[in-house]
Amino acid sequence: MDILYRAGKATAAEVREAMPDAPSYSAVRAMLRILEEKGHLSHEQDGPRYVFLPAEPRDQAKRSALRHLVETFFDGSVEQTVAALLDTESKSLQPSELEKLSRIIEEARKKGV
Predict the structure, then answer these.
(1) Among 2, 40, 75, 85, which one is most buried in terms of CB atoms within 10 A?
(2) pLDDT by residue for the chain (113 residues), tens digit each?
């Protein structure tokens, strides 16, 4: 999916070329077929080739994946999720990033979220 979001669209061969330690062409085709069956991809016909593209915008997919992650690993708790991120990422956060996070939290308070 990362490859398709970066490229916008690509054939199975192009996806395979962009993968580090790529599996066989058949394995890539099978993976793309499964992603299409699950609704994550669609395809266009370009002569004999299928050109695959993401079925939803990256922002929408990102939010959906994050919701799933929070539900699966943090019992739906945003607090636990943020605490885990800060615990692992706190050494790399810059003061400006911490300030921005503080502003986001303050905005959420104002909105009553």
Answers:
(1) 40
(2) 999 999 999 999 999 999 999 999 999 999 999 999 999 999 999 999 999 999 999 999 999 999 999 999 999 999 899 888 888 755 677 889 889 989 999 999 998 86
**In CATH, what is the architecture of 2-54?**
Orthogonal Bundle (1.10)
Asked whether 80 and 74 are in contact (CB, 8 A), the reply is yes
Paired tokens of 89: 């990422």
Domain ranges in the chain are 2-54, 58-111
Ramachandran category for residue 24: left, alpha or beta (phi over 0 → left; psi -120 to 50 → alpha)? beta
Sign of CA dihedral 99, 102, 104, 107: negative
Q: Is the pTM of this model over 0.85?
A: no
Residue 4 vs residues 30, 42, 53, 83: alpha-carbon distances, Å: 15, 11, 6, 31
